[in-house]
Amino acid sequence: MDLSPTDAVLFDLDGVLVDSRTAFTRSMNAALVEHGLPERSPEALHPFLGPPLHRTFATLAAESGAGEDVVDGLVLAYRARYRASAVAESAVFPGVADALAELAAVMPLVVATSKSRALAEPLLEELGLRSYFQAVYGPSLQARDESKSLTIARALEGLPHARRPAMVGDRKFDVLGARAHDLPCVGVLWGIGSERELREAGAVVLVDEPADLPVLFGA
Questions:
Q1: In sequence order, what E strands does the chain have?
Q2: Is 12 a catalytic residue?
Q3: Which domains does the chain have, with CATH numbers?
């Protein structure tokens, strides 16, 4: 599918720009252990990379027999550990920087992530990606369950001149959030979401590597 002439692109962060699986799973398990809950294998935690953090910890706490009262503490413990180690335990996916450079030369790019903006901005800065983006949109630290659709809505408000924007994501949350605003969503296959997940959610096209994006968007 040819999505040109796309005139702005919204990017998810985790699983699209940055491989943050190690930082995520280690920080999750550190928070769980700190609160007396059992560790989970990385494979068991990977599906939780995408939804809001409070929702994830509420699910894991309930599965371990703990109540809602521990969720805020789990989130704080996760964020403290993540802030200290995210840069060292995260990596930009190969080819992403080159693709962003091509796209940013011809159209505005923004990040629309479920990661708190206070964590997303420094991570992108330290990994050398922040300069490609006009803005970074993510929930505040106080937000408990901001939907991806709401995050995308705020990002679109920051792109008032865009007439044919598109979303790039790796999970069903990205696709469904984009569809709520009638945006086409490109699914990437180097992230967490499977081909089946992305197709069933309604991704308009799937790409195998970052170099496919500039071609797809007519850059």
A1: 8-11, 18-19, 91-92, 109-112, 135-137, 165-169, 185-188, 205-207
A2: yes
A3: 8-19+90-216 (3.40.50.1000), 21-85 (1.10.150.240)
